[in-house]
Amino acid sequence: MAKRRKTAARLFKFDRSFGRRFVAGVDEAGRGSLAGPLLAAGVLIDLERIGRSERLALARLDDSKQKSPEEREELYPQVIRAAACVSVAVRSVRAIDTRGLHVSNLAALADCMHGAAAEDATRLVDGFRLPGCELEHIAVVDGDARSAAIAAASVIAKVTRDRYMHRVAALYPKWSFECNVGYSTPEHRDAIIRHGICPLHRRSFASVAYSQLGLGQEDALLVGEAEDLPPDAGLESEGIADVIDIREAIRAEADPDDVEAIARDA
């Protein structure tokens, strides 16, 4: 426990080093996956209102990739309660294939920066600067292991996306999204080779599994075993909105599959 407290103290010390009351961090999840949306999250922390109880609750805060799914789930409500504001932006598979992964990622992170950052906040982003974001911000290499705000955003992004993939797994059982959440595991690649791809798969992603199927851009509409999917899981289901804003749902901890009910075009 002492080690965990030291980790959190180090992260908050980094954020306090900028000398401002508010610090906002943004991070993403799903950038390297074969299937599913890209999801960015932003978290605003009021450093003057983070007391002992919040610090204890966030003692395990660190890079979400270093945590087990169970640990991230435990941290998720703690981050929600401690944050002054949380924002989430989603880029669908259709948007990624149309605009490109890097452009979609930068845009989602910028949206979260606008959604979470107070006017006088220090604004931090994990990894690299956001060319399309007019707000002043700082890129922090390995930010999710150095900044409490970025680490908190990493938890929100990862848990929210994982919950969504777990819920949609029932629609596409042959690809085991409840286990791989869309990432390129050996089992996932084998499933693609056996069954082809489904509407949640990114057609623009260069994958060995895709090349073994002979899939190219001209095959963008090919879907493995599509005739076996439920009637409401057609090809158009992934693209109801290029951008899905689910900030209200995150604050209320709504079920991830409720995002469609409040989706709106950006």
Concise overview:
The chain is an alpha/beta fold and 266 residues long. It is 39% helix and 13% strand.
Outline the structure in words.
With 266 residues, the chain is α/β, with parallel strands linked by helices. It folds into 2 domains: 2-164 and 239-262, Nucleotidyltransferase, domain 5 (2-Layer Sandwich); 169-236, no CATH class. The chain has helices spanning 2-16, 52-57, 69-82, 93-99, 101-116, 148-168, 177-180, 186-195, 208-213, 247-251; strands spanning 22-29, 38-46, 85-91, 122-126, 138-140, 243-245. A 6-stranded mixed β-sheet has the order 5-4-1-2-3-6, with helices on both faces. A hairpin with an 8-residue loop joins strand 1 (22-29) and strand 2 (38-46). The protein is globular and about 55 Å long. The termini are far apart.
Biggest sheet strand line-up: 5-4-1-2-3-6
pLDDT < 50 stretches? 216-266
- The secondary-structure element order is HEEHHEHHEEHHHHEH
The biggest beta sheet reads: 6 strands, mixed
CATH superfamily caption of the largest domain: Ribonuclease H-like superfamily/Ribonuclease H
DSSP summary: helix tally: 10
Helical coverage, percent range: 25-40%
Number of domains: 2
Q: Tell me what the CATH architecture of the largest domain is.
A: 2-Layer Sandwich
Give the helix/strand class. Answer: alpha/beta
CATH fold assignment of the largest domain = Nucleotidyltransferase, domain 5
- Taken as a percent bin, the fraction of beta residues is 5-15%
Number of strands: 6
Provide the CATH top-level class of the largest domain: Alpha Beta
Tell me the span between the first and last alpha carbons. 43 Å
